[in-house]
Amino acid sequence: MIPTKVTSYSVVDLQMATGSFSIENLVGEGTFGRVYRAQFDDGKKLDSSAILSEYSDEFPGMVSSISELHHTNVIGLVGYCAEHGQHILVYEFLKNGSLYDFFHLSDEYSKPLTWNTRVKIALGTARSLEYLHEVCSPSIIHKNIKSANILLDLELNPHLSESGLASFLPNAEQALSQNARLGYSAPEVTMSGQYTLKSDVYSFGVVMLELITGRKPFDRVNQSSGHQCPKLFRHWFV
């Protein structure tokens, strides 16, 4: 049963808020569906994530479970839509986008992150992972730790997104397989497809290297010279 503590939106509500899910409001492709910017008549801005239809049977339980996650550094679920075959999650809106955007999509006029800010992002992300692993019962394996899932608010505080999604959806590993190509997955995940708390920590470590170096975990531009984040870091400090 879907809880009443989060708002139930109609398809019409979200169509109006997203301009009928227009391309102009498309934020990007999430691991499990498209993400749209939604602006409501009262001025409130939220992000809506359309979950792939193949997960429709699991949607009520997923909403119920994710709505129980409450932490300063975890993106909060605001509401959902489950009608006319649509399955949409509605989350808080964070204006500064993702950590990935800051490093790899920012234009020449963007200010670089200071070291103090990078430390704040590292600590906040670590706290979100500690919450999922140590406070939640049973523990939640995120399975999708990457810079694109670390969103930043106006003060550049980090908020981990997609928390709980992979754990509550069946066959999520297939959708997550692209992470191995991006360089975030632990070697044992790449080989066996099995996720653990430790594989989350490995992915967190890769993000920390990205935070320090400003490089993608797997830099295709420098592929021939072997410039991958873990290898680069090892070269500096070993």
Automatic annotation (TrEMBL):
<dbReference type="GO" id="GO:0005886">
    <property type="term" value="C:plasma membrane"/>
</dbReference>
<keyword id="KW-0418">Kinase</keyword>
<keyword id="KW-1133">Transmembrane helix</keyword>
<keyword id="KW-0723">Serine/threonine-protein kinase</keyword>
<keyword id="KW-0449">Lipoprotein</keyword>
<dbReference type="Pfam" id="PF07714">
    <property type="entry name" value="PK_Tyr_Ser-Thr"/>
</dbReference>
<feature type="domain" description="Protein kinase">
    <location>
        <begin position="21"/>
        <end position="238"/>
    </location>
</feature>
<dbReference type="InterPro" id="IPR001245">
    <property type="entry name" value="Ser-Thr/Tyr_kinase_cat_dom"/>
</dbReference>
<keyword id="KW-0472">Membrane</keyword>
<dbReference type="GO" id="GO:0004674">
    <property type="term" value="F:protein serine/threonine kinase activity"/>
</dbReference>
<protein>
    <recommendedName>
        <fullName>Protein kinase domain-containing protein</fullName>
    </recommendedName>
</protein>
<keyword id="KW-0812">Transmembrane</keyword>
<dbReference type="InterPro" id="IPR000719">
    <property type="entry name" value="Prot_kinase_dom"/>
</dbReference>
<dbReference type="GO" id="GO:0005524">
    <property type="term" value="F:ATP binding"/>
</dbReference>
<keyword id="KW-0808">Transferase</keyword>
<dbReference type="InterPro" id="IPR011009">
    <property type="entry name" value="Kinase-like_dom_sf"/>
</dbReference>
